[in-house]
Amino acid sequence: MSDIQKIKTGIPELDMVLRGGLPRQRIHLVEGRPGSGKTTVGLRFLIEGAQVGDRTLYVTLSETVEELRATAASHDWSLDGIGMREIVPVESRFEEQQSVLFPSELELGQTIAAIMDAIREHAPQRVVIDSMSELRMVAQDPMLYRRQVVALKRFLVEQGCTSMLMDDLTDEPRQYDLQGTAHGVITLEQLEREFGAARRRLRIVKMRGADFQSGWHDFAITSGEVYVFPSLIADEHVRPHTRAAVPSNIPALDEMLGGGLARGTSAMLLGPTGAGKSSLALQYANVAAERGEHVAYFSFDETKETLLDRANGLSMRAAEAIESGSIHWERINPSRISPGEFIWKVRRQVEDHNAVIVVIDSLNSYLETMHEETALSLQMHELLNYLAHQGVLSIMIVGQSGLLDKVHDPLEIGFITDTVILLRFFEAQGTVSKAISVVKKRPGRHENAIRQFMLTAEGVAVGEQLEGMEGVLTGTPRLARGSSTPPQSEHG
Is 321 a member of any domain? Predict the structure, then answer.
């Protein structure tokens, strides 16, 4: 595999999936339904070739040259230096059909000959033929089509081209002649969601004699670029780190956690809306920024204005940290983003900016909004493993429906997290108060006590252990046997 020369596709992350690029002087099939992005990928491949000095040629059988230039213009791309040849299959020429009845073999032979003539004339090092579906319709007979495809393959190999053959997958029932003939096969898909933007993804079906990363990879086409988001393999990204404690600067909370949360671990903040989960996560982010560390805060629920209002109300200097870049705050719209793109955003903050804390607020919106994706929990598990390997403390916020419901993990992901911190409301002496407890922590010890949790003008605070009461975690506390007075809340 190491002896195979590879060339860049013009899409850096696709080259990562291909472990360096496309094998040179091979035939590569790019298949996908109309609208999946084949033409855009092909143009990017040729633009990259022109930029490095390769001779290039785009042979179009289905679109006009003007349509291709319009596609490139929509991305603000220049096609200067790229050869363009428009070939109309014989059976598509309405005028000739009226006077002469062409046998399919003659029609296909003439079209293939025109393609070969164009390649001989331009002598390209990179060529795109778009699309093979047109040739299949001309052939009509599968055996005839296969013979001509094999002949075209031999010709392209002899010419020393690195070729992309586009296929629209319009044949029914599905034929696999092209997949069997090509050295490499890349499949593109566009999936419609019940709500939100369509999701694009690709996979390498085969790449004969070359290594590649298998599986599906999300990708996106923007106005100026094609981005591929390689699926995450956590074990490929390991760097040495220590399990040093990450303090919250809230003495009672750090005491509950046996010194604090640890780097390279994950923590879930679980509780109903309004219990203080985001404020507690912001406390860790703010303290880390004050230490000069980088934090990535991804919000699926609230705006920056809401977050800053909360921070100001708690006397936190989060606005300055966000302005300086110490805290990277980003609003994520889960209906417009794919799981792969979100994971890629997290990776960029960790690998490019050395983020030591990653906050995801909240997992409910991330997992529930994209419920069509059946593997989100597996992807989240892989992401947490990756962050652990990088020595990053990951803090995930999970909300519970109902304010005083019984404690439960609505997303059933507590088993994959190292620490679970539970926040609850409870009523005492006619006042609604908040409680905090650590119900799980690995590695290391933690306190089993239930303490009072407070959000004050001076910041986040944790009080003394709630003694003399039972049932606090259920939201319906009662005096324990032998107790005479309930605890006081922060309001009295």
Answer: yes
